[in-house]
Automatic annotation (TrEMBL), chains A, B, C, D:
Coiled coil (UniProt feature): none
Protein name in UniProt: Gfo/Idh/MocA family oxidoreductase
GO MF assignments: nucleotide binding
Pfam family name, one: GFO_IDH_MocA_C3
Length: 377, 377, 377, 377
């Protein structure tokens, strides 16, 4: 693991997600950009001294020194965004599998390089767009794939938080600090932090390709360098239209990620804060409440489920599903067989690159006086 | 009453709204554009023969023939949109008070004429933007007026229906027919029918002035002349941003009008389908569920309430509140006193005109390749 | 109308319910037990002086003096409970139709007398168990009648309020005063006021006959003479079991009337505070959200509906449905035809008598140390 | 671990709960009552051969053979109910800490023996009443402890499931089989399986002592030996009253465990299927939605929380909190210090024994014709 030491929220989540199903063991790390802190964090987590490193370069060098059978299988990159590219690139080029937090990298050019490297190496590369790990998100994706909603017409996705409604970064909050620092976060604030999750959710669930968009970015909190609020209109190939909202100044809201997809035959609504329910409103009958684990769900949703319906699963379980997908892909690769798509179900480096292009396009649109900005690629 | 005869949905709603509080009596009408049908409808509703007219011109002429003390106080115009302007103008110019359905008229020029006429005559003119009659919408408006949300930053309003997801107008549905006919509805479909309600809700609740917008209108159902789906970005004077969505092809949805307003001190969320609750999320405490009739609501909400909390009020009661507001204004005028603003609380001709300008601007933006189109006035 | 003058909550509700559909006109009354107050109330409501009486005896005498064609069709009794019996009996015996508030009377003997009198006169007699007027309650009843839930096994009904959590009657609150006074309310407090609604809801929806019950009544607020909290186990003929809870000391709750019925093929859940939704959970599929007005509802529910789905109806509309049912029965009787059961749908004097027997049995059980007390009849 | 091999639902849950926070490692087991199956299960879970036993006696003997430093710290008993007593007793007497599933044992006498043994040995003994591990259940408990609800008056708890609405045990369903077999489950069906959870939830949250109860047990599914439905009235020391419902034939319901507690100053409502919200309705203000992780929660709730508000935690996390509590108690004991009550927060052997007495009393009441049956002790 690279990053995720003391004080890092997301590192602990990754570790719990890895632990949940007993398929991962944390054996080596460079857990902070501050060598001292990295080592203290590693000790707390029970890393042996010889695999507890002060920086990621040392970690990589040490792993490469070891015989293949003793090396880590996969590195998990949970450091702030600006570190993703060099670390990911180095580990991919050295032949390691990678799990990397999102957004993948800062520029489309970096993303393209990474996609190419993964292609050359044939390694597994997962990006923790964790929300698509929820079983009912997979149910939604499968229903749309099978045409149960007909032709998709309209998509509204919102991810609203309130925690940055005040200038938290001025009070020394670590999470707020790096997120509002262009050097660490890239040019996008709320857009990169949560807007990219919304993009991934839409792209994953609908399978539609975004064609062009029209964005309005705002920094509401005085003195904040990056956007804390984003709204945009979306046009998809094939004619579907959409709206995406991402805001971190929606006072009082927590993680209000909500998706509504409407097609000619029905619509779906899902909310992250009550993830064990999916509302399906068909054209010709009453809305149906689909609950996680119910026997009438598609196999893709059932596979992502651990416990019976009515016993809620949550964020960590969804996160763990991404790790399970990566593990299945690694095992298949080790055996030299094609992975079972129902098992090896995770957001890959292409999804990560698509997210980076999305952010770049939004930033371009926000600066433009033209209504529509097309997505490259 | 003009319009609202057999087969008209909204006429019956107006009559129930008028009846509820015993402040209106229906005594005269021209209830359809087809004279025969107008008279049959009038008989069914118990109009006396001499006040049951075949067209509105006859109604107006007959009323003017009568001595002042026997005339109607107010005319309610519930005919399709294209009839609004001539009828409203004629009755206003003749000195009658008017309640008119929305959208008020087809063009900003007509709206301006009507505003001017009402100004000259000093009559009362209400527009049945009925959703702002809900007690908790008035609570929201009052909370914002008093600064309880701080400075407003972000507004998201959606009005989604599904009933036009198929080509209902091809099956002879009367409601669908006139709404999808540009001659009767003007240039706006879903935009005029429900988008204008969303605009009125935002303007009423926040008191903010819309500065510019960027709209995307779509006709999803093949062969439909007018938009059945609208999405737009909003910018308000003073810096608030917003999103407005209005769609009639959201399969399976009924009248999903939802408003979320977020300010520096808190946010509010209200949904029309559960109108007796308003969720208030303050910056520094848990969300509070405000229910209609609760003693801690503001007077403006209490006045709009008939029965104790926990016994739901609905659409008709909210509609009736518009009529109560108009009645209070008429009574005040009759007495020659200033109306109590808590009683004479209704959307006026200015609100109607603002709605017309909004529609015109959206249509202009939808045709434009520029990102932002400014609102006139 | 007898009772329902100034300060009476329920009188105004009855009047709005009557007005809503234009089938009733209030022409005569004795609106309070205080003659002076009765007349002031009548004047406010626009009664003509000769039909605005100081007591109900005068009202009855005056009506009988008038020729049949000028008499009232029906009297609405909305006075406190202890007045119900003499007034109802007198008007029934004089051949008038009656609408009476619940609980019908104080004793089973009085109820039996009233049932017999109505039988002899052949008049229409409605009891305003208003909650069964909600369209989705009628949908539930119809689904069970048609066997869509299979054999009913378990019923849980709760009616919880919080407004009597403190000793409001000591503060002069009129509603609290008469409800907590045995002389006016009979021997039952919360039991009679809201527990009887719960009984009616269960009996109406399931059609099951209550066989025996086991009750625990409590007066939580010190110094209160009557129960403010009731819990009981229920056994129905045929083997179904149930629980009924009625409490007026559930701090913070408003009118939380909730019904859940479970059978071999499915279950239903309905909540009065969100009356436009009925949740139907079938044995072999996902829960279905049935909304008022949706085309897949049964005719019995459709007839009770005024406006399209998604535009909420509420308490007054449900109340008005009882009045509509009574009006349909009166019209049928006037025409000498059998009433259409879908129109003449209202709780009758038998339902009222059943409610009185229920209250008597609960009071008996509460005093008994035996587990089960059987219902008479 | 004893029990929990292939096909056992709850064993996997225990293991995920143990793994989540990295404080437990599974090193030895006797995972089934069938030796063959035990060993296959152990191999699948990666137990070393010498610690993978065919029966629990072998496991215990083997552990005792090992030097203290190599022994397991704690044994987790997840076998069917009838195994609990001998295994628990043997391990306690041998000085091991124990985590045991609920209900603890079959008789009050067994429970008393176990309590005495734990007392003698001074070991840690946790019972996995997992629902009280939810952070907001701990918040509720803490609010009541601090008097924020005033004096508790009324408690309604329901645990409704639908999975046994048909005779699943006749179809070979393993979960249904042992639960409906008196030899394995004891004399209680739904009562023991889920009614005991409801009892624990009430006792834990309110701290009230149950004084007497009046129960009605039913077996609705023909041919089922044990109750599948239970309803009862409750009386608590100090005057509070309550209702407890537990049913496994509530068609279509999943794990609908719901608690409502009402006191003189406010009431609380919590539902297991949406465990991240607690509704607090104070006497003199609007209901407050308390969400897991919010800064205004009490420390007892905060300690039970892993991730920020709005990212849902679920069943496994709550289960894991019981294991964390046990681990904290074990660590404190190892250090010879008093455990921090905020850390060592878990249902202990006394709670387990109380649950057994509750079940015995309910069974006695169900057979009795007297209204009230007192709880022993």
């Amino acid at each position: 693991m690279v990053g995720g030491g003391q004080g890092a929220f997301i590192g602990a989540v990754h570790r719990k997600a890895m632990a949940l199903d007993g398929q991962y063991e944390l054996v080596a790390g460079a857990l902070s950009s501050t060598p001292e802190k990295a080592r203290v964090s590693g000790r707390e987590l029970g890393l042996s001294e010889d695999r507890n490193h002060g920086d990621w370069q040392a970690l990589l060098a040490d792993e490469l020194r070891r015989p293949r059978s003793e090396r880590i299988d996969v590195v998990s990159i949970v450091a702030p965004n600006h570190i993703h590219f060099p670390v990911a690139q180095a580990f991919v080029e050295a032949g390691f599998h990678v799990v990397c937090d999102k957004p993948l990298v800062h520029t489309g050019a970096q993303a393209a390089e990474l996609v190419a490297a993964v292609g050359r190496q044939g390694t597994v590369f997962g990006v923790t767009y964790n929300y698509t790990g929820y079983p009912l998100v997979r149910q939604a994706r499968e229903m749309i794939r099978r045409g149960e909603l007909g032709t998709i017409r309209k998509i509204v996705v919102e991810y609203n938080q309130g925690w940055l409604a005040t200038k938290l970064e001025a009070e020394g909050n670590k999470q707020a600090l790096w997120r509002s620092d262009p050097a660490q976060s890239g040019g996008a604030g709320a857009l990169g932090d949560i807007g990219s999750h919304a993009e991934n959710l839409v792209s994953t669930v609908t399978g539609l390709k975004l064609e062009s968009l029209c964005a309005d970015l705002t920094s509401f909190v005085p003195g904040r360098a990056l956007d804390d609020d984003a709204s945009m209109l979306l046009r998809f190939e094939g004619g579907a239209r959409g709206v995406l909202v991402a805001s971190q100044v929606n006072t009082g809201l927590e993680n209000a990620l909500r998706l509504r997809v409407s097609g000619t035959l029905g619509s779906l609504e899902w909310r992250q804060e009550e993830p064990n329910r999916l509302l399906h409103s068909p054209l010709d009958g009453p809305p149906r409440v689909l609950s996680r684990g119910a026997p009438w769900l598609h196999e893709a949703a059932q596979r992502a489920t651990r416990i019976p319906p009515g016993h809620p699963e949550g964020f960590i379980e969804a996160f763990a599903n991404v790790y399970l997908g990566v593990a299945a892909a690694i095992r298949a690769r080790a055996k030299g067989v094609a992975p079972d798509p129902l098992e090896a179900d995770y957001p890959d480096v292409e999804a990560g690159a698509r997210g980076v292009r999305f952010i770049e396009t939004v930033l371009e649109s926000a600066r433009s006086s033209a209504k529509w900005t097309r997505l490259a690629g």
